[in-house]
Amino acid sequence: MSFFQGIASALTPAGLIWTLLIITAATFLHELAHYALARWQGVKVSSFSIGMGPVLGRRTWRGTEWRLSLLPIGGYVEIDGMAPDIEGDSVRAPTRGFASLGALGKIAVLLAGPLMNLLVAFLIITATLNVNGLSTPIDTQISVSQVLPDSRAQALGLQAGDTITAIDGQPLPPTYQEAGQSKPGWQRLASVLAVSGPHTLTLKRAGQVRTISFDWTARVGGAQQKLGVAYGPGISVTPLNLPQAAGQAGKTLVNAIPQVLNAFKNLFVRFFTLNLKTDEGVVGPVGTVQVVSQAASLGGWTLLGIAAAINLSLGFFNLLPIPGLDGGRILLVIVGVLRGRPLTFTQEQAVTAAGFGLVMLLTAFVLVRDLARFF
């Protein structure tokens, strides 16, 4: 498969459309929170755009020009007093609007956007848990999620929803050793099918126990592709009421903090060492479209889970103390408080420009790293 064929297969129309919709919605809510906190404090907001680039339509409402722009890749809000005043050839520090707010007022406006994304993620996770319950993996079982048409698995009678409890008459262990590594028991299917010979699968279906016997010729490439099944650990579902779901969603967000920070740390290490090796912690635009495409094929709740993850990532990323991001602007406000006086306009502009440049380089690096997978 060529580079362009690989890109084309990754950027499916459905995945691309859903990705744009999710990111645009997440950005809209992010900017809407900035807008709301600014207006609540009496600060004028001159414009609010859904999308970027050339403006397709505009309408003024409550003193703000609401725009619909051509490129559906986010949006922006222009808050009075955040940008410098430009008159002719002179550039001056703003003294009104946002610039006139106290430290707490400025932090409230800046913090509102990331907190909105975290709130959206929290609400999506809460709703998912309340409707679907808490799923806990069972490593001593294999859950078959998909059987490919015209595959060996279909010929053997395997069906989506089957639960495999034993292989070759042996119950699946919680863990097993292979090549010096400890693996969960549900992965044993791939290990067993790496060996040619007669095999049996003991499975449960609709409360009935069945046994499937077959002769197998091992092939290079893995059982999942050659047998024609998609599978994972068994799942135990615990129903949750709304308060329980909210509590579990809160734990999920708290537990995500070290994972997200570690993912960003690894990204920065790879960025500064120019290491193009991909990792599971941070994906670029192409990887995001791939993930969303897979989620869309699995159903609405899976897609909502991806929307929660994107909001979570957007919220945490904007809280990073990098000038140009919300977290960086908050850091500059705090530095001004600790110094007893804010940074000068020139200093703040220089630091923000450097931070913005870093973010652009980081974005380019992630994109190049994403595309490098297809070479």
UniProtKB/TrEMBL annotation:
The keyword Cell membrane does not apply. The chain crosses the membrane at residues 6-29, 107-129, 298-320, 350-368. Its cofactor is Zn(2+). Keywords: Hydrolase, Membrane, Metalloprotease, Protease, Transmembrane, Transmembrane helix, Zinc. Residues 133-172 form the PDZ domain. InterPro entries: PDZ, PDZ_6, PDZ_sf, Pept_M50_Zn, Peptidase_M50. It holds the Pfam family Peptidase_M50. It is found in: Membrane. It is a multi-pass membrane protein. Belongs to the peptidase M50B family. This is M50 family metallopeptidase.
